[in-house]
């Protein structure tokens, strides 16, 4: 019956052999099978393998027990350190809790003092606000009186402005009359100027004609006397 080298290699790796060792052994098995070993040789080889497997299992069991013992020792050491650390931490937490209690009591006392001061301040502010409200009421009354007085003064001013407007209307009427009289005077002066201009023009024309007549007589005399 041929040897299943693949199965043998897997079994060797499962027992702890490295991949190279398992392949080497399977190669030996393959070579032995190729050399047409006898059944006795195969039995001897199988016995050797069984011995090797048994020794390997014993080594693995010993390593397993040693590993478990070391793990147990490490666990006990860690648990002891954890217990010691927990005890130390509990002591520190107790101190912190005591300090927090003292701090809380101090804060409560400070808050009580602050509340008392706020109460005093609130009462003082209420009194001040009452005084301010009273002053505002007085100021409102004074503003009402002042507003009434201002309204009366504005009414008087409006009346005065109405009188002034009336006076301005009268002045405008007088100015209109004056403008009319100035227009009439301008018209009269214009007429008089036109009359004067016509008179001057007639006078100048007559004098020029007289001068021309005199000049003609003079020229005639000059010609007569042969000058």
UniProtKB/TrEMBL annotation:
<feature type="transmembrane region" description="Helical">
    <location>
        <begin position="208"/>
        <end position="226"/>
    </location>
</feature>
<protein>
    <recommendedName>
        <fullName>DUF1640 domain-containing protein</fullName>
    </recommendedName>
</protein>
<keyword id="KW-0812">Transmembrane</keyword>
<keyword id="KW-0472">Membrane</keyword>
<keyword id="KW-1133">Transmembrane helix</keyword>
């Amino acid at each position: 019956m041929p040897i299943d080298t693949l199965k043998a290699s897997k079994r060797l790796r499962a027992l702890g052999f490295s991949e190279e060792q398992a392949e080497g052994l399977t190669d030996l098995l393959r070579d032995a099978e190729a050399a047409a070993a006898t059944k006795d040789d195969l039995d001897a080889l199988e016995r050797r393998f069984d011995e090797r497997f048994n020794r390997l299992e014993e080594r693995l069991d010993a390593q397993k027990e040693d590993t478990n013992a070391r793990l147990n020792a490490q666990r006990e050491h860690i648990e002891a350190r954890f217990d010691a650390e927990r005890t130390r931490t509990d002591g520190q937490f107790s101190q912190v809790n005591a300090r927090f209690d003292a701090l809380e009591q101090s804060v409560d006392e400070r808050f009580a003092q602050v509340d008392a001061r706020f109460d005093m301040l609130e009462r003082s502010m209420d009194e001040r606000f009452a005084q301010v409200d009273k002053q505002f009421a007085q100021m409102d009354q004074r503003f009402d009186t002042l507003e009434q007085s201002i309204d009366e003064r504005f009414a008087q001013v409006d009346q005065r402005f109405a009188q002034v407007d009336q006076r301005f209307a009268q002045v405008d009427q007088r100015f209109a009359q004056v403008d009319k009289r100035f227009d009439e005077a301008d018209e009269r002066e214009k007429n008089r100027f036109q009359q004067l201009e016509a008179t001057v023009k007639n006078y100048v024309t007559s004098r020029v004609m007289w001068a021309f007549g005199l000049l003609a007589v003079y020229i005639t005399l000059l010609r007569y006397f042969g000058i």
